[in-house]
Amino acid sequence: MKRLPLNRLWLQFSLAFGAMVIVAVMSVIFVGIMMRSERPPVDPATPPPTEEQQLEFRTRMRQVFAQSLISIVAIGGAIGVAAGIWMSRRMTAPLEELANGTKRIGAGELTHRVQPQGSEEMLALAQSFNQMAAQLQKEAQMRQNLLADVAHELRTPLTVLQGNLRAMLDDVYLKQE
Q: What tens digit of pLDDT does each residue of 92-101 get?
């Protein structure tokens, strides 16, 4: 059986959104259950409440409901903002490292590599970046080797020509007749 990949960005966002929806629904259900009884509790030993007492009880219950709803919205909002900040920091940290890596590679530091971290997508991106940097480093080394070889090959005949020219200028070189 194939294991569910929990390290995928779309799955993490879906789970976070689903958790927020579940918390919101559960909060509304909780407040609804608290508000369901609109009558004060009945104690057989006490006389039934008057109309004024019932009205006062309903008013207090509505106030409690409003306060509970405001508290739930505030707490839910704070949790949502905190979760959003956490998710964005978690997601942008590997991207920031990759951005810094591209700047360093662009500046000519071809030995720089990034540490793969984050979700599967970020890991694949970091590995691709490291492969690209390795290929660039290899090609730069090949270019340096080629230039050294070309310089060496050109230097040998030029040295011979330069020696002959000096000999001719110094009248040391004998002309063949």
A: 888 889 999 9
CA distance 128 to 141: 20
Determine the distance from the C-alpha atom of residue 158 to the mean position of all C-alpha atoms in its chain, rounded to a whole number: 57
Q: What average pLDDT score do residues 113-122 get?
A: 86
CA atoms within 13 A on the CB side of 154: 6
Give the predicted TM-score (pTM) of the model: 0.55
Block residue for tokens 């080394």: 141
What are 43-60's pLDDT values in tens digits?
677 777 788 888 888 888
Per-domain boundaries in the chain: 9-37+50-146
Distance from C-alpha of 131 to C-alpha of 138, rounded to nearest angstrom: 10
Joined together, the tokens standing for residue 171 give 């009248």
pLDDT at 78: 83
Residues 94, 96, 99, 100, CA torsion sign: negative
